[in-house]
Design brief:
The chain is built from one helix and seven strands. The chain is mainly beta. It has one domain. A hairpin with a 2-residue loop joins strand 6 and strand 7. The radius of gyration is 14 Å and the shape is globular. The termini are close together.
């Protein structure tokens, strides 16, 4: 299970969903499989393939993620208060996206990957 926050680049679009993604806490993104993963987006009602470049940055970006965030009514969000989601692993490279409904207390740092954790967790 991964706790992620919504993220947007400087060139985002509230119409197409371009420029949105998810940011992972600390080194959690290193636990994702590199390449392509399948993400179930409930608002869109389908699985979407999303490219992941683990070594580059702690975000995954996709217009489909943006469309999900927009469909959830989370756009726009207050500065420094992005919405949070939970990604639940269903298979090695398959994840289901769930909105996080409980309030966020403090930093996401408590969800950091343990040292020497295998990449497939």
């Amino acid at each position: 299970m991964f706790f992620v926050s919504a993220w947007r680049s400087g060139g985002y679009s509230n119409v197409t969903g371009r420029g949105y993604g998810f940011r992972f806490s600390n080194k959690m993104h290193l636990l994702l499989p590199e390449g392509t993963l399948q993400l179930w987006l409930p608002a869109l009602g389908r699985w979407e393939s999303i490219k992941v470049a683990v070594s580059r940055c702690p975000e995954i970006r996709s217009k489909f993620i943006g469309q999900q965030i927009i469909a959830d009514g989370k756009v726009p969000w207050p500065k420094k208060q992005p919405p949070f989601y939970v990604m639940v692993r269903r298979d090695y490279a398959k994840f289901e996206l769930l909105p996080r409904t409980d309030p966020v207390y403090g930093s996401m740092a408590r969800f950091a990957a343990p040292k020497n954790a295998p990449r497939w967790l």
